[in-house]
Amino acid sequence: MILAAIGLMAAGCGDGGANSDPAGTTGKKQFEIGFSQCTVTEPWRVLFNDKLRTAAAAHPEVKLTILNANDRTEEQVAQMKTFIRRKVDAILISPKESAGLTRVVKEATKAGIPVVVLDRDVHWDGYAAFVGGDNMEIGRAAGRHAVKVLGGAGKARGIIYEICGGLASTPAQQRRDGFHEVVGKESDIQIHGGLDGDWKKDKAHNILQDALKTLNHIDIVYAHNDPMAHGAFLAARAAGREKEIKFFGIDGIPDEGCTWVKKGDLTATFLYPTPGEKGLELALKILKGEKLEMRRITLETATVTGENVDRFLK
Question: What is the value of pTM for the model shown?
Answer without folding.
Answer: 0.82
